[in-house]
Amino acid sequence: MNVLVVNAGSSSLKLRVLGEDDIVLAGTTIERWSGGDETGPLEEFLRGAPSVNAVGHRVVHGGSTFTRATVINDDVHADLETLTGLAPLHQPRALAGIDAARRLLPDVPQVACFDTAFHATMSEAATTYALPAAWRRKWDLRKYGFHGLSHAYASRRAAELAGKPGARIVCCHLGSGASLAAVANGRSVDTTMGFTPLAGLVMATRSGDVDPGLLVWLQRAGLTLDELEDGLEHHSGLAGLSEVDGDLRDVREAADNGDEHAILALQVYVHRLRQGIAAMVASLGGIDVLVFTGGAGEHDAALRTDTVAGLEFLNPMQVLVIEAREDVEIATQTRTLLKEG
């Protein structure tokens, strides 16, 4: 079964056709994709690609409704639209990709694969915020977790390579966005992102965890909600700390040249990363394998060395670097769902 994997990002559209054994038969990235009704670039790609039997879409947010891959029909599409408020940057782009593929391939089954679904196995103790019950019930306030497609693939592959199907794994997805997942027996036990992808680790331009009282104070000091959101999403993290930008490679280069802001940025980044890993280990009750994946996780050896160097107190663990392959996970989930009928 050839599966077209559609991954709509905040500004681009990644397309891959995966054949049997997950061989990439064709692929491209459409930069500056506007979404909306634009189907031209996708149509051009399909003209030169092998025929496909199914389409798998990455959808960031499935809310509490979608806890596994789901065949897309009009009702599912409508339900996905209602979740836009939970992921305003990503959900409309995913829906645009779905609409484009459904128009061009109306007779091919389309499947939604969710970043939140992998974390649906977390316990209530791990997902429940200590907020007023009325708030939690009215708005379904809970930890959802994200990067689930990446964590699912990387943790499964790590267990295979380690020869430990029931391994306790801490998976570090470190890219522009960054999160950790605690995985036991292939199931998510805990994660660092929460109700939104802003929570947890320091990221490229996102703050990660901050004192909620600080945010209230900033609003009382005069920041508007829009200014607060923009600052937390686009001007915090490595970018805010280093005053360089959010790219870890640029920050490391500046630090190597003696830039004090960049040096501090790296120190904060690693401190929070170690702290998060230790918390995930506590949720697991121990660790067998530590996995690094994502752009920074795969390619920054110094980051991995600095991180592991501060974790000697943990029981002996295997450290693995796994290539991020969300496309393989999406294709796998799509095939499995459709074969189940």
- Molecular shape: globular
**Strand sequence of the main sheet, in spatial order?**
3-2-1-4-6-5
Q: Work out the helix count.
A: 14
Oligomerization category of the chains in this entry: single chain
- Strand pairing plus helix content: what structural class? alpha/beta
Order of helices and strands: EEEHEEHHEHHHEEEHHHHHEHHEH
Q: Mean pLDDT, rounded to whole units?
A: 95
DSSP helix fraction: 40-55%
Distance between the termini: 14 Å
Strand content: 15-25%
| Uncertain residue segments | none
The count of β-strands is 11
Radius of gyration using CA atoms only: 20 Å
Largest sheet, in brief, is: 6 strands, mixed
What does this structure look like?
This protein is an alpha/beta fold. 43% of the residues lie in helices and 18% in strands. It is built from 14 helices and eleven strands. The strands form two sheets. It has a six-stranded mixed β-sheet with strand order 3-2-1-4-6-5, sandwiched between helices. The protein has a five-stranded mixed β-sheet with strand order 9-8-7-10-11, sandwiched between helices. The two termini are 14 Å apart.
Give the helix/strand layout.
Elements: E1 3-8, E2 13-18, E3 24-30, H1 40-48, E4 54-59, E5 70-71, H2 74-82, H3 91-104, E6 110-114, H4 124-127, H5 133-139, H6 148-162, E7 168-174, E8 178-184, E9 187-191, H7 212-220, H8 225-234, H9 237-242, H10 248-256, H11 260-284, E10 289-293, H12 294-299, H13 301-309, E11 318-321, H14 326-340
Parallel strand pairs: 1-4, 4-6, 7-10, 10-11
Antiparallel strand pairs: 1-2, 2-3, 5-6, 7-8, 8-9
Helix pairs in contact: 6-14, 10-11, 11-13
